[in-house]
């Protein structure tokens, strides 16, 4: 296992981290086996969040007795002091620990959310208080708007930043990663498979592995998935492979969707998933989860062809900060055969 110094925290973290968001989808014994196998293999970065259903409880039940073996990161999506403080304390109870190594202000995509969290009686105040009390060691921020995150971390208030970095979403390379590097911050790349769409897994993971980040959190749910992810980082990426992966990422990133979720669809289409997976589908093909996504959402996607209020002017597109042609991409996806 390769380890990298986690920015100014000074900790040595495994380049592959364990993302626990999907553990509530599997039986507890399977989750326990995956977590313990990951620790046995040298993975020492565990990522979860208060908002990931009972993920924190699973961690507490599965590996709290091995607490000194891993760097534990969780998140609060509360914006005010009172509820964030309550959530931090609840997270400690759930994970059966006295402290978390990293507490992140979660899913900050709007300026108003950032201002609220950082203002008087905001969530950041609760995080600072928890740090003074020894309940939190470091404070970070997560979000889906890399250009805004680059601005927000420049105030020096955060030790770490969590962002998308995968083949169809290379956008953090432009401003965010350079700014975080300049500030010696801990850099964590999430969703290497872009939510379960990108294949092959090895190629998907080796792209962020080749970049200037410290750890990649992958949402693993079984021993086999841990083995598959470990295999992807078992050998260094040479210059030739890195250049090839970067060229592929530039081509796949032309959809320009950041998953900021500003858009919404009147017929319930998960627009970012369609925007991103359309490019993945046409370039590499989809993982089984991606095919299932199209099977599950077939009727909604097809409804975009005939939904009368959007015929003259689609309701989704004016909400997009990147001015993307979402309607045409979705309507083209209506012709995709997932079989």
Automatic annotation (TrEMBL):
NADP-dependent oxidoreductase domain sequence ranges: 16-199
Any single Pfam family the record assigns to this protein: Aldo_ket_red
Signal peptide bounds: none
Matches recorded under SUPFAM superfamilies: alpha-helical ferredoxin, NAD(P)-linked oxidoreductase
InterPro entries named among the record's database cross-references: AKR (IPR020471), AKR2_Oxidoreductase (IPR053135), NAD(P)_OxRdtase_dom_sf (IPR036812), NADP_OxRdtase_dom (IPR023210)
UniProt-recorded name of the protein: Aldo/keto reductase
């Amino acid at each position: 296992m390769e380890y990298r110094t986690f920015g100014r925290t000074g900790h040595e973290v495994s380049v592959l981290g364990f993302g626990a968001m999907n553990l509530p989808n599997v039986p507890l014994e399977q989750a326990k086996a995956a977590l313990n196998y990951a620790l046995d293999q040298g993975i020492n970065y565990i990522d979860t969040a208060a908002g990931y259903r009972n993920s924190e409880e699973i961690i507490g039940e599965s590996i709290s007795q091995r607490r000194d073996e891993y760097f534990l990161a969780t998140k609060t999506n509360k914006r005010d002091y009172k509820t964030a403080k309550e959530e931090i304390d609840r997270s400690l109870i759930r994970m059966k620990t006295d402290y978390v190594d990293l507490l992140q202000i979660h899913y900050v995509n709007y300026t108003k959310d950032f201002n609220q969290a950082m203002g008087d009686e905001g969530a950041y105040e609760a995080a600072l208080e928890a740090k003074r009390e020894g309940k939190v060691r470091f404070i970070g921020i997560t979000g889906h708007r890399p250009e805004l995150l680059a601005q927000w971390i420049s105030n020096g208030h955060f030790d770490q930043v969590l962002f998308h970095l995968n083949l169809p979403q290379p956008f953090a390379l432009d401003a965010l990663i350079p700014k975080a590097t300049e500030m010696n911050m801990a850099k964590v790349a999430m969703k290497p498979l872009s939510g379960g769409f990108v294949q092959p897994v090895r190629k998907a993971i080796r792209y962020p592995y080749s970049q200037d980040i410290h750890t990649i959190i992958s949402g693993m749910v079984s021993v086999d998935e841990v083995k598959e992810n470990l295999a992807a980082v078992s050998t260094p990426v040479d210059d030739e492979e890195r250049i090839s992966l970067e060229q592929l990422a530039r081509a796949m990133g032309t959809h320009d969707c950041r998953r900021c979720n500003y858009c919404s669809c009147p017929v319930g289409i998960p627009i970012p998933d369609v925007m991103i997976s359309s490019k993945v589908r046409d370039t590499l093909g989809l993982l089984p989860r991606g095919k299932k996504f199209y099977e599950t959402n077939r009727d909604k996607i097809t409804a975009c062809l005939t939904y009368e209020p959007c015929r003259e002017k689609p309701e989704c597109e004016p909400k997009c900060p990147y001015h993307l042609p979402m309607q045409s991409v979705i309507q083209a996806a209506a012709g995709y055969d997932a079989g």
